[in-house]
Amino acid sequence: MTDAVSNFLGFELPGTSDRSLARRDALAEALKGDLTPTSLVSFSSAGVVAVIGPLASALETVEALDPIPSCVIVASDGGEAGATDSRMIGGQKVPVVFGRPIAVDGFLGKFTLTIARGSEEIDLAKSMGIGNGYLDVVLDLSREPILNREVLPAGYFAPQGDNEALVAACESLGDLRGQFEKPRYVLYNSDICAHGARGVVGCRRCLDVCPADALSSIGERISVETHLCQGMGSCASACPTGALSYAYPNRTDQLNRLRRAIASFREHAETAVDVVFFGGETGVHDMTRAIAALPESILPWKLEELGSAGPELWLSCLAYGARSVTLVSSADTAMSVSSEVTREIKETSAILSGLGWPDSALAVVDADEPLMERANSLQSLEDQAATMRVATYAGMEEKRTVLRASIDHLVSQAKEPPAEISLPKGSPMGEVQVDSAKCTLCMGCVAVCPAGALLDNKERPCLSFIEWNCVQCGLCENTCPEDAIRLSARLLTDTNARMARRVLNEEEPFKCLDCGKPFTTQSMISRMEEKLSSHRMFQGEGIRKLKLCENCRVKEMFKE
């Protein structure tokens, strides 16, 4: 089991004390059983390399490379734009194309490179008849790379003048030929996506935080380019509905493992449990250097990437009996991921503060000294979990269900929970406020609500609301033609109040003047009269048409 723990963490846990052994045993217990598998994403590369940059630099680089199947140089200087040439390098004829690269798109085995040739834009691979019409690998020697992303696609290298990065890239090129696979990190359920509806844009959280540009908007839904996705996880963490979820490990497996680890540690270590999340290769390196000096209360937990764990996991750790949760940001943590983690910690900390937890119960810190300072400060932190009944709920995949379970448990253990906790604007829970003087009960908001938070009534004009279902996506607010809706982020601590269906606005139905059929509301009729009062078709008796149901309106037309 020790091997399993070392393989999971990426380093050996130090110490032979009872607490150190209890920590090892807790992790070993957590790791029992297999993770639910995910599907694989495949790449196919013939090893065709495009080297972009000044001619002299490109030639020098290609000369230093080990033999590769095929190479083309795209020279940004040294010749007339659009001209072609060739050079013999290492006994291999290497074509040289002169021109200004303007766009690169794709991933390992399927890159397109567009260059400017006069007033034209040329697809390099297709124009040269290379392979299957795509380039396999791109080595961009430009000082300002064509692709400017925090996380570059597999097969694209941009050293930006860093000689060590250039050497590492060149060493990798020879290995990028053949068939490759990686896990599918993210799953997408379009049925509960809050991105858009009926032409109205709502939630953009995932689009704003993906450092690899693997997500794009396609109308009312999101498209996930799995070949670009490198498992940063911030999209799944940011998604308010759970439409995007991390696939390996999935939420169920992650929760079950954490629950077992924390329970075992609490039982056998006889000390507080401080969960420390870290992720990525640099994160493993940082923790390897730091772990020997950290207190034995620290339970290190490796994530695929730091952004792959969100508030529902953090709160569950506390509900399961952890004293604190710390996230360790490393040098290679993408800025967008760090920003999203910081935002979510601010939102989650507001909940914890409202329930009486200290501000230090949840934090993100940098590796090295800030981590050491954080670990030392935890020793004086009151173990709030020691006096509460710990949660035992099993792992669940539905994000909002996990969030609700963790919050309900923490509320139940709070000494004097307030009725309402104010949350930062944009938090994924809260209320919809409706100005009844403006609302005409057109039900446009109901039609676009992706989470079933806003509801109509088939029997009478009535707009109802279930607060827990609301993810504050803004679709209702953006859709309302009367500007009658406002969002307010908050948490009601009474679970029954959160889940209850309450009326936001209702009216007596307006009945057709001819047949008496109820078909709209008085406020809608009044609003239409106001808007159409100057229209020539609705002068005098013409305004009466507005007060007829659809059937009687047709009959009235034929009378005329």
Report on the architecture of this protein:
The protein is α/β, with parallel strands linked by helices and 560 residues long. The chain folds into five domains: 2-27 and 262-391, Rossmann fold, CATH 3.40.50; 43-180, FAD/NAD(P)-binding domain, CATH 3.50.50; 184-246, Alpha-Beta Plaits (2-Layer Sandwich), CATH 3.30.70; 430-506, Alpha-Beta Plaits, CATH 3.30.70; 509-559, no CATH class. It contains 18 helices and 29 strands. The strands form ten sheets. It has a six-stranded mixed sheet with strand order 4-5-3-2-9-10, covered by helices on one side. The model has no long low-confidence stretch (mean pLDDT 92).
Which tags fit this structure?
single chain, 560 residues, alpha/beta, Rossmann fold, Alpha-Beta Plaits, six-stranded mixed beta sheet, 18 helices
Summarize the structure.
The protein contains 18 helices and 29 strands. With 560 residues, the protein is an alpha/beta fold.
Write the layout of secondary structure elements.
Layout: H1 2-9, H2 18-30, E1 40-45, E2 48-53, H3 55-64, E3 70-75, E4 84-89, E5 92-98, E6 100-105, E7 112-117, E8 120-123, H4 124-128, E9 137-140, E10 156-157, H5 163-173, E11 178-183, E12 186-188, E13 196-197, E14 200-201, H6 205-209, E15 215-218, E16 221-224, H7 234-238, E17 244-246, H8 251-269, E18 274-279, H9 280-290, E19 298-303, H10 311-320, E20 324-329, H11 335-354, E21 362-366, H12 369-378, H13 399-413, E22 420-422, E23 430-434, H14 444-448, E24 454-455, E25 462-466, H15 475-479, E26 485-492, H16 495-499, E27 501-506, E28 509-511, E29 518-521, H17 522-532, H18 550-559
Parallel strand pairs: 2-3, 2-9, 3-5, 9-10, 18-19, 18-20, 20-21
Antiparallel strand pairs: 1-11, 4-5, 6-7, 7-8, 12-17, 13-14, 15-16, 22-26, 23-26, 24-25, 25-27, 28-29
